[in-house]
Amino acid sequence: MRESHEESGPEDGHARPPAVGDTTVEALGALTEALETVERARGRLYDFHQLTGGADLTLDRAVELLRTAGHAGHADLVEREILGRNVIPGCWTYQVVEAYDATYYRPFVEVEARVRQDLVAGRQHLYEAEMKEARRTHGHPDHTSGL
């Protein structure tokens, strides 16, 4: 049997600090949503990195098979023009990932955390916690405010 959690409002870690207004909570929700989107973009960048690297490794087999089939000139062409090629001038995919992380991702994470720390003592997901509270059915065992 589940315990009843009928306390009013979000858990302490998700409760709005005193004197924090609705617009601040909404702004922090938008800032965090933007960071979550960047997290997804970063994941796709890692997909790009791994897929491109995998394709480059598969070229070894293609070159080998072209040579075996008697197409040495075509094997040479693939090996010379594509195998190990930079994806953008001067860079392999790992360098693109590293540049993204250093130039954009890490600063974004740091700024988002700093803004939350300065405005709401570092609390996360206040907007969502308040939405959860507004949408839950009090008294329902699967709509408790906390764990």
Summarize the structure in short.
The chain has 147 residues and is mostly helical. It is 65% helix and 0% strand.
Q: What does it look like?
A:
There is one protein chain. With 147 residues, the chain is mostly helical. Helices cover 65% and strands 0% of the residues. It is built from 4 helices and no strands. Helix 1 (22-68) packs antiparallel against helix 2 and helix 1 (22-68) packs antiparallel against helix 3 (93-120).
Topology:
Elements: H1 22-68, H2 72-81, H3 93-120, H4 126-135
User: Quick check: average pLDDT?
Assistant: 91
Radius of gyration: 25 Å
Structural class: mainly alpha
**Helix run count:** 4
Number of strands: 0
The termini sit apart by 14 Å
Helix content: 55-70%
Give helix and strand order, one letter per element, not per position: HHHH
Q: What would you call the shape?
A: elongated
Major beta-sheet overview: none
SS strand fraction: under 5%
Low-confidence stretches: 1-5
Notable traits:
147 residues; mainly alpha; 4 helices; 65% helix
